[in-house]
Amino acid sequence: MSLADHTRSIIALAWARMIGLGDEELLGAGSHHEVIAADGSAVAFLRLFDHTVLSGPAEVLRHARRRDDAELADERRLLELSRRHAPGARSLGAANLLYAEEPAALGAAQRGAVSFDPEHVRAVLAASPADDVQASGIAAAPWSAALVDEGTGTALGAAGRELWAGMLGQLGVLTVPDQRRAGVGLQLAAVAAEEAFSEGLVPQWRARTESVGSLRIAAALGFSPAGSQTTVVFD
Questions:
Q1: What is residue 108's predicted lDDT score, i.e. its pLDDT?
Q2: Which of 60, 117, 120, 192 has the fewest CB atoms within 10 Å distance of its CB?
Q3: Residue 38 sits in which domain range?
């Protein structure tokens, strides 16, 4: 499913402002951009529709000009390139960027009740591996909710939403380990997306390229791919 021109324009404008480009530089015909950042800043390669953007320290960008887009989008290649600048470089991985234009209609087979009690969200965070908590972004998200078993009061999972550039609702979900593969993440993602729509935001879903489950949730909710982002940070 392709995104409407109006939605594409909002996404392109949001990313242009976050990266530091002009409002129209990620619109229209394909283009490549470089954004020089201070030493110690992250290195990121963005593909968005027909455009690419590489941002990072000047030395990294200079070496990157010899590489094609496929190499820069590859997590291992970008990490190797960044480690020439600083041995302590660490990859945050490659993620697909997907967006939705309308709420999804889920079937009747849903679990639990949605709770906006922060205690339920904290219970999910406490019961989950630290790496998963960090990747979800829920701990720092201004908006969050949990899915709770109505019989036992046990929190099954949580969702969070961050505001990006005032236009995108970046969604994250986290299911406690013993409740995974039971539809909890899908249900929470649907709730978070619907809440984003209600506030006039375009829901954004970032799925790690190796995360089949995350991509399945996006597909089930009608999210459409728009690009990818590969990121390396310096400790």
A1: 52
A2: 117
A3: 5-96
